[in-house]
Specification:
The complex is a heterodimer. Chain A is an alpha+beta fold. Chain A has helices at residues 2-17, 72-95, 99-102, 174-208, 218-236, 238-245, 258-269, 281-295, 335-347, 349-359, 369-384, 388-401; strands at residues 19-28, 34-44, 55-59, 107-111, 117-118, 122-123, 135-138, 155-158, 164-165, 249-250, 299-300, 313-314. Chain B is mainly alpha-helical. Helix content of chain B is 59%, strand content 3%. The longest helix of chain B has 21 residues, at 308-328. The radius of gyration of chain B is 29 Å and the shape is globular. The chains are: A alpha+beta, B mainly alpha.
Amino acid sequence: MKNIILIIAFFIIATSFSHGKSFKAVVRTENNRATEEMVELEDLVSDSSFDGKYFKIVKGKSDEAIKFDADADLVFRAATSYYHLSLARNYFVNKVKSEYVSQFEKMIIRIEHSNQFSELGHFAHDNLDPQFNNALTVPGGKGLASRGVKPWGTEIWFRSKKKIHISDLNTNGLANQEFKVLMRGFRNQIHMQSLQRFLAGAVTVLVSGSTRSDPFSTDNLIRTVGSSLIMEFGYQFIDPITKATSRKWYWLDTALIPEIIYHEYAHAALSDSLVLSHSTAIIEGMADFFAGQIAGSPKLAKHIKKYNTFNGKNAKRKQDYVIQFEMSEYANTDFVFGLLWEIKNILGEEKGEAFMFDLRKRLTTNSTIRGQLIDGILKTCDAVCDHPFVDKIRILTALNIKGI
Amino acid sequence: MRLILVSILMMAFSVQAQETVPSFKNVREGKSFYSKFIHNYAVKRTLKKTTRAEILAIYQEALKKQDPKKLCAYDLNNEITTSLKNSSTDIDLKGFIYVVRQENEIDDVVAKILLTAHKVKTTPFMNKDEDDIIPPSNNEKTKSALDLIASFDKRFAQRACFDEAYKSFYSELIKIDKKIKSYQLEALNLKAFQDGRITEDLYLTLEQGRLNELEASPLSLASYQQKITTLRIQYPLRDLTEKSDFTSVKVKKMKSSRRQKLFENYTDMQIILMGNVIKKLRARLEYDAVEISGYKEGVLQETIPLDPMERFRFAIKALRKEMTLLSLNTFFNGRTPDYMDLMIASYEIGIIPASEMEVVASLEEIWNPKKTFWDKAGVWIKVFSSVATIVIPPPYGFIPALVILVIEATVGKKKQPNTNDPSVLF
């Protein structure tokens, strides 16, 4: 009798503190398209705000959870981020069996937060450049009692979206450079071809005295010089032409893109080894990989144009290694993501996932792709692979093709 | 002490047993090279007339009767044919051999030797018109050659197996006339028979040898047994159940499997040397660190550690160098073994297990990439497009130029992008 009363009491307490409530959120369909659907949020401990067992969604610098009856757009963002953060947490706790994640304290999630991060003061001064169109995971800090800054835990910050003209952006120029090299080849080919035709015709005229089409005739000269001029014009004005024909405005609503939410949570989940100090190819690539695993897709932040005009990432995009990938400016390219995804495919879905989670232990935030990442992959294979020798050869062969 | 004595006795017995009952049991090959439809049809036809058990009993009985010191495929085939005749079983020896192979009593190498012997002995006369045969000129060379043909039985065939005897005979014939052609030997054989210097049986036998180019026959049963015995003594098999289908794959432009080719072309010593090259490769692929050290007057000046991928490419480069050096080895007489030969050799002596064969073999793709259809087609399209850039007048000349550009950017893209990368050592 005593036991029954205890069970009923526990049930009443559990149900009263943990609510399941439905909200509109951005979700992915089976075809990886973005759609808005009603979703049920798990583990809410408040019946009036986004305060859950594991996450508390707040606006900006506030410590108060966003109320369910707040502005509809804010609730939409809060619900989407809460929902996908719960999915990400479940993945790390239940699928990857991360002890570290299961011991996380309640995480504060800030949306529409524009302050920069300060390692000492938590939030940088309001006058410093406000931040938009990105998200970041910040490491916990001890606070600064003398200035009234309280200690804080690991937090995820989603910035507001802001329309920015494309000309104001510093984009990764590697793809553009590749296109320019191709264009240069085409232009050289056309010029050489015009010259060859002209010289061949001229020699024929000089040797035999006549030819069916005189290269010195006005018509032929216009054709030959004209095609070269058109080509040269196209080549010299490629940048303004590209700008004129491409998208003009850029924005990114990070709190509404599932894969960005997974990516940020993955940073927190992997922070036992990959310390959240700065952005590097390794730390971003690893977070991308687990974001892809949670999303069940090698494509991140694609097909969601309403909230994102950024190109997204694709693990299956074929690209060769270039030394620039080691630099922090190129930390957000999808090269490492593609590399890790390919290794997972070599090892098999189940094994590959466990492999990557184990790999983090052999990496640091400052690891290089060519050095510690490959070394870590080989050592992880020694520890995890069923047939280390064979699997390592498969991996090394694949990496060799990528030009590493 | 007693234990040592028992061990010595057991070893002696096992050696004795090895000598008395020869065995060609398949212990390395997986799926047979002869497991194709046409061979299976021959097996089905054979099994309609008899059972597998009966075939195996006949084979084992015939094998027991063989002299282990003088193994001969022709004698073994004869013994089997006689037994089949005695048991009134009218079956084709080919089907019989396929069944024995299916039962793993023999491997593909032995199967091929027996099938070749069967083919030689069942080759009929060509029945050529005598007028079509150019008679040999009447000179000293012809006389000596005819004397040699007449002495075939006494000089060569008495103690040796037919294939070995024919090879010895042919090497003597070459000494008489270096440039002797098959049609000349045909005429000599006919003359020897017409002159009554050889019997019709011997005439047929010599013709069978000539028609099947037995002088170039790469492997006899005795030499295979000798090779395999040496290899097994030096490199005892660790896992008797290990078998690989990789060895049974047909070699391009040859009528042999990879393993058959190995034993037909290389001696036991060569196989060991080849296997050791792969042993080194395997060890290098497992290295945790590789460094380049620079010395001056014996004092270390600097050490450059290699990145993991540089270590991998170093292992491949070292392999390729050793493959080249192998051909300079006196044991190889300038013969250059290919990577696949090395792979099979390493499997034969147990360096690479069956489960790793495919993957280690795939390393060849790094320095010898397969050409796809578009790789080959791309070369031709580029040639025609280059001509078209001159022939087609402006402004349409951009079309072939564009085609060339697309080919260079896609098909012609290097499969090893790091070949000329200045940021790596290897």
